[in-house]
Structure formats: C-alpha cells, structure tokens
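ok trying this again, last paste got cut off
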Amino acid sequence: MHIARQPKSISLIASTLRIVGAVIRLLLVGIMLACCLLHIALFYARANVAARQKMVSDWANRLLYLLDTKVDFQSADDQVHLSSGLMVCNHISFIDIFVINSVLPSPFVAKSNIASWPFIGWLVARTGTEFIQRGSKTAAHQTQQRITARLAAGERFAIFPEGTTSSGAQVLPFHAALFQSAVDSAASLHCLSLSYHDATGARSEAPAFLGEMSLLRCMFNIAAAGGLTARLNVLPSEIHPEQNRRQLAHRAQHRIAAAVALLNDASPES
C-alpha cells in the first residue's frame, strides 16, 4: 500500500513546489515592475529614441525571464527594414506586448481598460501606448489619426487587429479601421505570427487571457507552466501597400493565420 501511495505523494510535492515557485516568480515580477516605474519617472522622458527602445526591450526581457518564458524570434527582414512601419500580430495574452517588445520595442494600441491595471497600466501608458475606447467611433478615429501621424514621422507602431485575445488555436477576423493609418501614411506593413509552446514543444494555452480571467490569474498560469517558448515570426513585409484598408486587413489576417497554423501543425500535440 505504501508503494501504491508513493506516486501520489510525489505528485503532491511537485504540485506544491510548482505553486510556490509561481508565487515567488510573481513576487519578483512585482518588484521588477516597481523598479521599472521608478526608472520611467526618473529617466524615460529625458532619453532619446534609441535609449528608450533599449529600456523597453530590457524591461520586457526581464519580465519574460521572471515568468520563465523564452522568445524564439525569426524574421524574413532585417532590423533596419523593420525600423518603421505598422506591425500587426495575432493576440493571445497580455504578455504578447512584452514578447514583441523584447525584440522589436514599439508603442502599441491597447484597450482603454488596460490603463487601469496595477503597475502594467501605468508602465505602458508612459511608454507611448495609444489607448482606444471600445464602442466609440470618434475615439477610434482620433486614435487612427494619431497613429497615422506617428507612422508618417517614421515610427514603428504595433496593433492587434483581432481586437480581443484568443486561445491561439486560430486567428480571429481582423478589424480594418486601424489599417487606414498604414494607407494614409504610406507606411510599410509588417505581419507577425505568434504562438506559445510548452517544454515539450506542444502548443500551450497557459498564456491565454480569455473571458473574465483576471490579470493575476493569467500571470500565475504562465509562471506555473514550467517554462514556455513564445515563437514570434516576422513574415516578408509589404512596402508602401496600395490596397484599401479592408483588403490590407483581409490579406494580413490570411497570412498570419496561415503562419500560425504551420506553427501549430508542427506541435507534438498534433
């Protein structure tokens, strides 16, 4: 009987250690974010563009390290080519922003409620994020105009055109409105595909930020996953696309969905 119970005991110990480890990671994340806020208050506003991008990249890499998440980054274009333009990516988790910022630090469009998140809301608000209010055509138009101006000035900007998060199993239809910024500014369009995988290489839904899930719960799921890899791929870019915004959105959604499907099909779970 003792032998029969031993596997359960081992499993309980492993589960307890996993929970304790995740809690410790979240405490360290909280400390790191507090340090980031102080750094922003003291130095960010006075830094030049290159210094700001390095700060954002460093912060993102530290947060991902504490959450035991690695980034596997592949790009069809070089860094110089990607220095400006509109980046569009499928959306799975709140850490998508940090995954992208770890290699391609950029301001984002985010839902207005994110500004109220503890630590993270203040952090992203002070690093160039444009917030958009859901259900307001006026707010969306104003946001689109601001992004157009920033793209025309040579900035690199990122959006999640699904407008919500998914499990990562598939890519949801893209909203076309913010693609107008690429059309009006004649900016390059960069399509990014993103997926998350566990230590075995299987697709993982641990980072998925769905429904009424809290930010803390999502962070815990990631921290307790036992090590994740975010696979981020940049597809060949379109230079000064001439299509209208609906055509751009449809083409981008198709390209990213196909790239994500390839990543998922290659997963051992398949």
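PB: full thing came through this time. The helical segments are 2-43, 49-66, 96-103, 120-125, 137-152, 180-185, 215-223, 245-265.
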